[in-house]
Amino acid sequence: MEILGYIASLIIGISLGLIGGGGSILTVPVLVYLFNVDPIVAMAYSLFIVGATALVGAIPKFKEGLVNLRTAIIFGIPSIAAVYATRKFIVPAIPDSVFFIGSFEVTRPVLLMGLFAVLMVAASISMIRKPKNKIQETDKPQEFNYPIIFLEGSVDGVLTGLVGAGGGFLIIPALVVLSKLPMKQAVGTSLLIIAAKSLIGFTGDLGKYPFDWVLLLSVSALAIVGIFIGNALARKVDGNKLKVGFGWFVLVMGVYILISQLLK
């Protein structure tokens, strides 16, 4: 199972390089089901892995001028604050036994893994379906809807803090619609935001859990290697077709996790 886990770690990075997102949604299932990491700790690990991988992915985008620093700061501040606060205060405050549905006990791991499964399903649908109306890019001067950006960034940060996923499928459309960024800049800017909020959010977990740093750094290194492989393959493979197939895979995984939590 560990060998499969390391192979899957490489695939996480490859998928990020090939389709520009979605791979991080697999990090928690890989850690929980292949490496037998506790779900709460796995979500902390995921923040580090996703953050490190996104940071490496953002560097070439920055060199190409595809990272808008002003947008990253404005959108990133509420998101970073929310993910840090969620990991530092909200997650530890969730009781071990949350509530009962009849005789079924909803524990903290069951609640968070169930929420994660729902997020996986939502992410898979965004990858599978073809948008009815393509997001319109504009050449108008950039403007910011600060209240909506603050709300969107905060919600995205809380979700990231709760389940340990980067939330790129939420951030990119928000940057295009709310910050009037061209799509390519939105992708590059989202990587920087994901890197910052995930790595800073991870610091909220330091000292709370006994971390297996060998496992954490090994998975991170393989995911980073994978993103370089994925970037190379992206020049030869149609990423849009792969995105749909990957979306179906994520959907199946999400449904499986949801059912497995309900049957506990």
Q: How does this structure look, described?
A:
With 264 residues, the protein is mainly alpha-helical. The protein has one domain (2-262). Helix content is 73%, strand content 3%. It contains ten helices and two strands, in the order H-H-H-H-E-E-H-H-H-H-H-H. The protein has helices spanning 2-19, 27-34, 39-63, 69-93, 108-128, 146-163, 168-179, 183-203, 213-234, 239-262; strands at 97-101, 104-107. The protein has a two-stranded antiparallel sheet. A hairpin with a 2-residue loop joins strand 1 and strand 2. The mean pLDDT is 83.
What descriptive keywords fit this protein?
mainly alpha, 10 helices, 264 residues
Quick description:
With 264 residues, the protein is mostly helical.
What is the count of structural domains? 1
Quaternary structure annotation: single chain
Report the sheet with the most strands, covering strand number, pairing sense and barrel closure.
2 strands, antiparallel
Amino-to-carboxy terminus distance? 21 Å
Which helices and strands occur, and which strands form pairs?
Elements: H1 2-19, H2 27-34, H3 39-63, H4 69-93, E1 97-101, E2 104-107, H5 108-128, H6 146-163, H7 168-179, H8 183-203, H9 213-234, H10 239-262
Antiparallel strand pairs: 1-2
